[in-house]
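Ticket #4471: structure output looks truncated?

Reporter: J.K.
Steps to reproduce: submitted the chain below (206 residues) through the standard prediction queue, then opened the result file.
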Amino acid sequence: MNILTHIKHGKKHVSAKGALFYANDFEIGFKNNTDASTSAWANEMRAVNGGKPIVLYGSKSTLDLFKKNTLKIYNNIWLASYSKYMPNPSYKYDLWQYTNAYPSVSLSQKLDGNTIPYGGRINDLLYRKNNKKLNLNLYYHIKNMSYMKVINKKGVNLYINGKVIRRAKYGEVLPIKSFKIKHNRVMAKGNLATYTANKKSVAIYK
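Returned output as attached by the reporter:
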């Protein structure tokens, strides 16, 4: 997954310091001590990773075996369940891996596909940034924009394939790959969803 931790000569080392989050990829071998060891992993990583989110990844059948207190130790839960129906477990999760056969045109192969479940706190997981507010007008001709922040207290809608998946709350930071401004509206494309909002509802962050 995103990162590994290892111990060398009695000292803890963390790889990929530029990672946005650190994931424990737990897939097989659930045992009596798994809850304890999985909790210990999260606590160790939190002590050495500089405050980045700690994520537990696994299939629904595996995550269902964990105690709720173990899941709560992690900042976010990344659930894999290859189904057209959104899972509804007894615990909250923030990213849903819904397929391992998502067609990638650029790579000419099938990849894992992920999306945001209803209520998923995707901004906490992927888009933490040391934000500096910039004038939106500066971005009319700039292509390397990166983040947009919701400044409308009522929030803005997020869409996937034209359907509203949830409403981004006031203060939430969203990823930007590209956007255009038409009249007084901003229409932006992100990693997982698209956003449309009045210019006064959002601010571009770098």
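Triage note (M.O.): checked the attachment and the full token line is present. The first strand starts at residue 5 and ends at 8.
Status: closed, working as intended.
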